[in-house]
Amino acid sequence: MNLKVNLAGVGLKNPVMTASGTFGSGAEYSDFVDLNQLGAVVTKGVANIPWEGNPTPRIAETYGGMLNAVGLQNPGMDVFAKRDIPFLKQYDTRIIVNVVGKTTEDYIEAVERLSNEAVDMLEINISCPNVKEGGIAFGQNAKAVEDITKAIKKVAKQPIIMKLSPNVTDIVEMAKAAEAGGADVLSLINTLTGMKIDIHKRKHVLANKTGGLSGPAIKPVAVRMVYQVSRGVNIPIIGMGGIMTAEDAIEFILAGATGVAVGTANFVNPCATMDIIHGIEEYMKKYHISDIKELIGSVE
Amino acid sequence: MMTRKISTTITRIDKLAQDVYSMWLKADSIVKEARSGQFVSLYCKDGSRLLPRPISICELDRMNGTLRLVYRILGEGTKEFSTLKEGDTIEIMGPLGNGFTLEGKKALLIGGGIGIPPMLELAKELSCEKQIVLGYRDELFLNNELEQYGKVYISTEDGSVGTKGNVIDAIRENNLDADMIFACGPTPMLKGIKAYAREYGIKAQLSLEERMACGIGACLACVCRSKEVDSHTHVHNKRICKEGPVFYAQEVEL
């Protein structure tokens, strides 16, 4: 049985990876998860310099989901390169660094800093709904998506994954713009912008007022977007958005995803990624699938 | 310390007051490593409620490998827990966070509302002289159990028992002095205690609370403003679930 997949020339032992921001750089989960078994670890977003993030409360549970407005708190590239990359290098898994920025120059500086680091791919976050400048501003306009992709491709030594926002009218247009800019892979979807109000206090639950909705509540939207984008572009897709089980992951693969990322599920079940890998194997056994590539985009 | 997620069996349930429940869980592996001031995360069975509920440890029975949680119904998750029966199972993760540091010669243990439960295990573990100050809105709970570990002073908002007012009013009314304060309760109470401790030059350990997702330091949801740079991001955001929930008062901004 072959679970190996290929993303822009980078081979993964299986399609299961972590979704950025839900798994740190893996250290906190290493009590629960054998990182060696993961297809890849996608790190929490890191910028050229440290970011303090948003005020608290940063999190709110909603029906079948959660809102977060962490605001990309991160230690910046110096600490990350010195501490997190060497930590991940101890494991036999692919390292994908999620990169955030407020300006094009921020992204470029971070990507250049990573060019000599032993990481396999870079995932560029142009879709965070929780920071006022940068982030999503780059991801909601096709021209801006193409321009930032081009600018990053010029300096990047590793293959580039552009992470797209679902908070747009036509995600296929954004996906095509990223492809035109030279993106090697696409990640979708980031969180959907949402809000929760405490009716007893008549106040916003999140200090940031709005937050990004994740979890099973958004899965049908994500599956639909992966399906549409996979039929509109010729580059591979990492699908994510509410994957809790192997069945969910397989749905994304059938819709057209080559890789799948597990996010909010890590909070519900710290061993979720392991359970999903085993569940995919069980599914392949049951339906006599010898190579997972047979499943990618195979929905009829 | 190894953190585990395990399925536990409920060995005993008591209702202590309106909406306040006590629950004993069989959890040998967690009990073995846990100490006062730490917490566990409880998972709901209803799949529409994803996030675990962090609840502080009220008591540890190391002989029987059981731990006690006392919680108040505050939302749908705790409402679900309150419907569980003895013999039912529940998934929990723990032990989580850093607990109290056992120090001082004459201590003030201060609990406000649903911040009272962690004072019980702390009172058991502390060998020094203890004065226990408990603040309630109205209905009392755990006060009788705490009496065996030290003199208990009570404040109630309505003045029905003890000092009318809050825990600081009770401390002043009874002229209590100490060289160490341990406190858990709502943030306004902790702010008051921080100011009181500074006024009298008393060292204070405060147990903080914030909305959490992962409970293990990965998601960065439950940070507080700290004086020193934190070990994760190297800014001033210590994680309540990881570096906390107990901090020295001068270490955090409330």
Automatic annotation (TrEMBL), chain A:
Binds 1 FMN per subunit. HAMAP family: DHO_dh_type1. Residues 3-284 form the Dihydroorotate dehydrogenase catalytic domain. GO terms for biological process: 'de novo' pyrimidine nucleobase biosynthetic process; 'de novo' UMP biosynthetic process. Its EC number is 1.3.-.-. The active site is at C128 (nucleophile). GO terms for cellular component: cytoplasm. Its cofactor is FMN. Substrate binds at K44, N68, A69, V70, G71, L72, N125, N190, T191. Belongs to the dihydroorotate dehydrogenase family. Type 1 subfamily. It comes from the Bacteria. This is Dihydroorotate dehydrogenase. Its main location: cytoplasm. PANTHER family: DIHYDROOROTATE DEHYDROGENASE (FUMARATE), DIHYDROOROTATE DEHYDROGENASE (QUINONE), MITOCHONDRIAL-RELATED. Keywords: Cytoplasm, Flavoprotein, FMN, NAD, Oxidoreductase, Pyrimidine biosynthesis. It catalyses: (S)-dihydroorotate + A = orotate + AH2; (S)-dihydroorotate + NAD(+) = orotate + NADH + H(+). Pathway: Pyrimidine metabolism; UMP biosynthesis via de novo pathway; orotate from (S)-dihydroorotate (NAD(+) route): step 1/1. PROSITE patterns: DHODEHASE_2. It is an enzyme of class 1 (oxidoreductase). The keyword Flavoprotein applies. Gene3D superfamilies: Aldolase class I. It is found in: Cytoplasm. FMN binds at S20, K44, G45, N98, N125, K163, I189, G215, G241, G242, G263, T264. One of its GO terms (molecular function) is dihydroorotate dehydrogenase (NAD+) activity.
Automatic annotation (TrEMBL), chain B:
GO terms for molecular function: 2 iron, 2 sulfur cluster binding; electron transfer activity; flavin adenine dinucleotide binding; metal ion binding; oxidoreductase activity. Keywords: 2Fe-2S, Electron transport, FAD, Flavoprotein, Iron, Iron-sulfur, Metal-binding, Pyrimidine biosynthesis, Transport. PROSITE patterns: FAD_FR. Pathway: Pyrimidine metabolism; UMP biosynthesis via de novo pathway; orotate from (S)-dihydroorotate (NAD(+) route): step 1/1. Binds 1 [2Fe-2S] cluster per subunit. [2Fe-2S] cluster binds at C214, C219, C222, C241. Heterotetramer of 2 PyrK and 2 PyrD type B subunits. This is Dihydroorotate dehydrogenase B (NAD(+)), electron transfer subunit.
